[in-house]
Structure formats: C-alpha cells, structure tokens
Design a protein that fits this description.
rod-shaped, alpha+beta
C-alpha cells in the first residue's frame, strides 16, 4: 500500500510588456500647385499646429504619447501609440499523489502552472493592446478634424497663390461654411 502525500508547486513570473498600435493613410491634398509647393504649404500649416519639421516629415507627440508623423513627400500620415505594463503574477497549486509518483506529478503540475502563468501574461498583453487601440481610435477622430482643417487652409493658400499667377487678386472672401471666393482681374 502506498502513502498519499501533498505536492505543492508555487511559481511566479515578473515581466514588463510593451504593446504598440498604429495606422497609416494617405492625405487628400489637391494638386493645385506642384507637389513640392503643396507640401510646403501643408508643412507651414502643420508647424502652426505644433508639429516639428524634419526634412520631408512633420512630427508631433501628443500629451498622451500618441505620435503623429506626416510624410510631406508621400502625402501620408502615420499615427502610433504604445503603452507598457509591469506584470507580477504568481500561482500556487496543491495536489494529492502517491509517494512513488511524486516526481512525475510535480513535473506535470509545474508545466501546467507555467502554461497558466504564460496565459495570464498573454491576457494582460491583449487587454493592454485593446486599451491602446481604443485610445488610438478615439484620438484619430480629433486628429482627422484638425488635419482636415490644416489641409483646407493649405488648399486655400494654394488657390490664392494660383489665382495670383493668373492675374491681380482684387478680393478674397471666406464665408462661415468655409467656402472661399477669390476675385481676380485678368
């Protein structure tokens, strides 16, 4: 007759995880003037909004860590956000086993506990990724509105410049809806 004993396994894991999410899309900039000039006009508008120009890119990091990068040459925007978390998990499991099978039971229990810890880390990482994605989606709505306005102002500047090339500008009027009327004497 064999004796039953308790096999106790205690494991812990400490990890730092980092997740990042991002999106990139083209900017809809009308080709009123040559592409280089349109890029310059957009860059001027972006700098006025707090972007820092570095060659053919304009960058801004928001207070929440969102990184916004506008590639002027390619007319694209990339928005990314990252977050990190410190995970400290531990599990303790106890099972009854025959004394003759103690080593095998303990090894199997350690394997199950290690898998469970890894699953918990993966769950934490997935929850953090979902949080980052939700935060990024909320930020995109505000950012889209801000960039649409900057592109609109750059387009108005381009139209005014183009009108000046056609003749003498007599007047420029913008209504409350954002419509612009430019009178040109040819």
């Amino acid at each position: 007759m064999s004796r039953a004993i308790q096999v106790r396994v205690s494991e812990s894991i400490v990890r730092t995880i980092h997740v990042e999410d991002g999106v990139a899309s083209p900017l809809e900039l009308l080709p009123i003037l040559p592409a280089e000039r349109m890029a310059e006009l957009l860059a001027d508008e972006l700098v006025a909004l707090g972007f820092v120009r570095e060659g053919n890119t304009c960058r801004r990091t928001e207070a929440d860590g969102t990184e916004v990068t506008v590639d002027l040459a390619a007319s694209t925007i990339a928005v990314s956000l990252g977050a990190g978390a410190h995970i400290d998990e531990s599990i303790e499991r106890t099972v009854r086993a025959d004394i003759e099978r103690q080593d095998a039971v303990e090894a199997g229990l350690r394997t199950r506990v290690a898998r469970e810890l890894e699953a918990r880390v993966a769950d934490h990482a997935e929850a953090l990724r979902r949080q980052v994605t939700a935060q990024l989606e909320a930020k995109l709505a505000d950012l889209k509105l801000e960039l649409d306005r900057a592109i609109g102002r750059a387009t108005i500047s381009a139209l005014t410049e183009k009108a000046g090339q056609l003749g003498q500008i007599e007047s420029t009027h913008e209504d409350e809806a954002g419509n612009v009327t430019i009178r040109v004497r040819l």
